Hints:
The structure holds two protein chains of two kinds.
Chain A (H helix, E strand, L loop, with lengths): L1 H22 L3 H21 L3 H25 L15 H17 L14 H7 L1 H11 L2 H22 L7 H10 L10
Helix pairs in contact in A: 1-2, 2-3, 5-6
Chain B lengths: L3 H21 L3 H25 L4 H30 L14
Helix pairs in contact in B: 1-2, 2-3
Amino acid sequence: xxxxxxxxxxxxxxxxxxxxxxxxxxxxxxxxxxxxxxxxxxxxxxxxxxxxxxxxxxxxxxxxxxxxxxxxxxxxxxxxxxxxxxxxxxxxxxxxxxxxxxxxxxxxxxxxxxxxxxxxxxxxxxxxxxxxxxxxxxxxxxxxxxxxxxxxxxxxxxxxxxxxxxxxxxxxxxxxxxxxxxxxxxxxxxx
Amino acid sequence: xxxxxxxxxxxxxxxxxxxxxxxxxxxxxxxxxxxxxxxxxxxxxxxxxxxxxxxxxxxxxxxxxxxxxxxxxxxxxxxxxxxxxxxxxxxxxxxxxxxx
Lengths: 191, 100
């Protein structure tokens, strides 16, 4: 009973803060709403006996990724945000597409049937502790994807450095500013 | 015990909130944030299924998805900063250089 109540609370907060996150005008408020959403998502992971993932959700998502978003939001001034053309002509068309997708996805859920069960029952995980169970699976069955994930993180690190490098080009800097002022296109393509 | 379909319905709703945000908002950073919402919907689905199937496979995949989301946020926000830096004086409404 308590579990269902807790699930209902988390689901309500997730949906409410998700809708607020995509509809508030101020981007900083959007990021804070997503922060609330991530905390309740960690609560849901706890109801699913995934303590390690709940911790990772809070540490990595709420602690690292959202702080990165906040830093970028404070770097890019709020007055002149970066805008793209929306993918659909009007906002209502986008909402209708999303609602239709939601109806389709929920309508097919009853047709879903579980496959065959694995070896990690709740008791087995509780005996071995969740972190150990996940680590055993991660370092044996999923060793190659684990290495590839490491390479992806390295690529992200190097990519971030390359993208941020431009300002520190010492002697080129004054020239660079002069060129962007005089509307020189090829210069700003790739530096 | 909570039925599995509740988790799947919540994950589908969260995914669709992300789709709606991606389609309707025009701010690049909010669009990235919507992608994070979609990834979280998928993560919830994977963790719920892995719990109900007595397997940690879905949780391992969730782990990788979190990794890829972190990399995507770093690169995407780096591109956003670079765009902002190079086009500060220009009208930033149409970023369509790659269209040719």
